[in-house]
Amino acid sequence: LVHEKQNNFERAEQIYDEALRIATNELGDKCIRVANIKSRLANVYEHYEKDRQAILYYNDALDIYRMNGIEEDNYLIQDNLQRVNLLDQKRQNEDLVELFPCFNPFGGSHTLLHIF
After folding, report:
1. Closest of 105, 79, 9 to residue 49, by C-alpha
2. Contact of 91 with 61, CB cutoff 8 Å
3. Helices then strands (H, E): number in the chain?
4. Residue 77 in contact with residue 71, Cβ under 8 Å?
5. Which of 17, 34, 43, 114 is the most exposed place for a label (fewest CB within 10 A)?
6. Radius of gyration of the chain, Cα coordinates, nearest whole angstrom
7. How high is the pLDDT of residue 9?
8. CA-to-CA separations, 100 to 39, 67, 94, 110, in angstroms, rounded
9. Could you read off the pLDDT of 35-47 as tens digits, one per residue?
10. At what angle do helices 51-67 and 32-47 cross, to 10 degrees?
11. Cα(77)–Cα(71) distance, integer angstroms
12. Whose CA is closest to 42, among 57, 61, 52?
């Protein structure tokens, strides 16, 4: 977490990968600590704009939290859900821009629209 807060995401990724390996081996893959590490690792992937990988890790964390009886209104679930939803929306907007180059998901008008 310290490396992440200092924007040293490469080092944070290395540490989280190692922590995930150790926690999974020692505690099993259904432990809340494993979910927490997956969530932090997803945050690193999100920073690198590896959105698909981030979504996978956020969803893994959500599954583990739920298996352990964490309630839906708990901040652990709510934070991961919010991040997944934002990343899904971002991907959908990117898909629309790719399909329709004049589409601007942020409002306003695109330069191309002024040509016509």
Report:
1. 9
2. no
3. 5, 0
4. yes
5. 114
6. 18
7. 84
8. 33, 41, 10, 11
9. 999 999 999 999 9
10. 160
11. 8
12. 57
